[in-house]
Amino acid sequence: MSLKDEVQFHYARKSVTHCKFSHDSKYFATADAECTTSVFVYSGESGWVYLGRYRAHYEPILDMVFGVDLDSNQQRLLTLGKDRVLVEYDLALSTTDDLKLLQYSRIEQSATPLCMDWYPNITKENFLVVSNNEYKMKLLNTTTKMCRKTFLGPTFGSPVKRISVVPALDPSASCYLMAYATENKVGLQLLPLDGNPHRSISLTAHPQGVSQIACSHDGNHIFTCGGNDASIHMWSINAKAMMAVEALGGSGLEPFYGLIEGGKEGEMFAELENYFYYAQLQSQGMVTTEERNVSNKVQLDQVPALMRALGFYPSEQQIEDIINEVKFSRFVETGEHVLEIDLADFIKLYINHRPAFGLLHSEIQKAFNLLCKGTDSQNEMDLQYLTEILQKRGKTFS
């Protein structure tokens, strides 16, 4: 290997922000500051040749990954943009100067996705894991790009901006890990994801910011690259320490009780139980002389009302994601839909989907300023105008 130039390409008009090789080293892809993806292919004696470019995003590309289709063994290329769009390119049908798109999917409504990686094969369904700026991690079906599960991610100062699944050389390994980086920290997350805060740890890696993260092929080390500090750090992975931290956090629902205001003995949990059993009465009918059938489950259509009663007001898109998460939770294994949910699963569902830090003042201010744009003033509005908006737009008020 030498530093001699083998070939040069000058297709990007702005700086290159991402570079990725496919797993078989046949394809090489770049993303640039012009929101454009360029792909090159290795062609035997001709070496690396230009395949094509496509501007599929209208805002900066935040991440790019290659993968392998498990059915056809074909290479897959996906890009994730700040425009909340996940794009998959059709490498098999692309020809010179004609890079084709296979799928174009909007995966977020208001949050901004920041990074992604392929979820390991620890479930019967194949997933992409995506982290967003609301401290959430979502599992998307690799074929339909439907959001299948949402989890509370690590909450160590800033959202997760880089993720990399740690390679497991032993397919029968009982412990899978995912490395991640926030603004200035590096951490580890035990898989599968479930929202348990005791299954992740973090350390300050680069005080001035982490620019990139990578894992060694043997799964024993993590490498982080700083920005202005001009340094690269190598970290050792200790899976046993991670499992010890998880054990100290408790089992079952114990870690999740700590995320509810006041814990299991607090007023919030008592209200949650009362609302849950009231939802059972709603399903059976409030006015009836028949014997009540009290159980530990409620109908799935009662979940949105329960969420709102607890102070979380999901959008219609979020409600659809919540319903689908429960409804299809066992579909791959049994082929049947789940139409009921018990109290334990509802607690996890509520904690994973609600805002990580509640409704922030900055979010209210941002929404208020947006409404003020329709008035002559930038910081106040007439009460009649506000009432009219609440009655006619979005989820209308009576």
UniProtKB/TrEMBL annotation:
WD repeats: 203-245
Designated gene of the protein: Wdr66
Sorted UniProt keywords: Cell projection, Repeat, WD repeat
Gene3D superfamilies on file: EF-hand, YVTN repeat-like/Quinoprotein amine dehydrogenase
Gene Ontology CC, one term: motile cilium
Protein name (database record): Cilia- and flagella-associated protein 251
UniProt xrefs under PANTHER family: CILIA- AND FLAGELLA-ASSOCIATED PROTEIN 251 (PTHR13720:SF13), WD-40 REPEAT PROTEIN (PTHR13720)
Cell compartments where the protein resides: Cell projection, Cilium
Pfam families linked to this entry: WD40
PROSITE patterns registered for this protein in UniProt: WD_REPEATS_2
Xref: InterPro entries: WD40/YVTN_repeat-like_dom_sf (IPR015943), WD40_repeat_dom_sf (IPR036322), WD40_rpt (IPR001680), WD_repeat_EMAP (IPR050630)
Organism: Phallusia mammillata
